[in-house]
Amino acid sequence: MVGKIDVHTPALPDFFRRLLQALGLEASGMPMVQWSMEGTTRAMSKLGISTSILALSAPGPSIVPETEGGRALARKYNEWASEVSKAEPSRFGFFAALADLHDTEGCIAEIRYAFDNLHADGVYIFTSYRGGNLGDSDFDPIWKELNDRDAVVFIHPTMVEGSTVASTMLQPPVFDFAHETGRTAAQRTMNFSRTLTFNGLTGLLGFLQSSHHEIL
């Protein structure tokens, strides 16, 4: 009998935590969760999860303002996650991190490296990048690369550019993330030509609540 597979296991390695602290992300109002591999393993055992697919926690590599910095963070995470997966292949897989999708060259290079060299289980991307949503034609070369590989793509919501946390009692994962995911699902559904063009992809949508089921 195959056990549960958790396809949404955000990882916050120490090097990423230190970077977020250096960038002052805690000042945005979004609390930084306490995370460790040991805690993840304990939760898996408690919940009967046999395999977890690791993914770099939001906000991901695009939080780094410089192009080369974003690329370097994605590569560092992917190599870290690959080592975790290789050490316990039956327990851990990983979705590859990508830099800001506006960096077409860097993203395609990382996709190729992650799949061909690190054997990633898929990629983990966010619903928008600097105001550009996933349906923008600027991102088509990246979608084509993923489509040609029949890739699994996990889409995670993020804070809309320019927005702030209005209340510490109502954090984005509680409400805003579900709507951001729903907006992305609706956009993809209505953009029939792009949906038909990139039909080799397997998409996984995070934080999609029952209020959005009717649009899938």
Task: Tell me about this structure.
Residues 209-216 have low confidence and may be disordered. It is built from seven helices and eight strands; from the N terminus they run βααβαβαβββαβααβ. It has helices at 14-23, 37-47, 67-87, 104-116, 140-148, 176-190, 192-197; strands at 4-11, 49-56, 92-97, 122-126, 128-129, 132-133, 152-156, 202-205. It has a six-stranded parallel β-sheet. It has a two-stranded antiparallel sheet with strand order 5-6. The longest helix is centred in the middle third of the chain and has 21 residues, at 67-87. The protein has 216 residues and is an alpha/beta fold. Helix 4 (104-116) links the parallel strand 3 and strand 4.
What's the short story on this structure?
By secondary structure, the chain is of the alpha/beta class. 39% of the residues lie in helices and 19% in strands.
Number of contiguous helices: 7
Average pLDDT over all residues: 82
Low-confidence stretches: 209-216
Question: What structural category do the secondary elements indicate?
Answer: alpha/beta
Secondary-structure element pattern, one letter each: EHHEHEHEEEHEHHE
Overall, the morphology is: globular
Record field, number of beta strands: 8
Q: How do the strands of the widest beta sheet line up side by side? A: 1-2-3-4-7-8
Q: Biggest sheet: strands, sense, closure?
A: 6 strands, parallel
Strand fraction:
15-25%
Q: What is the percent of helical residues?
A: 25-40%
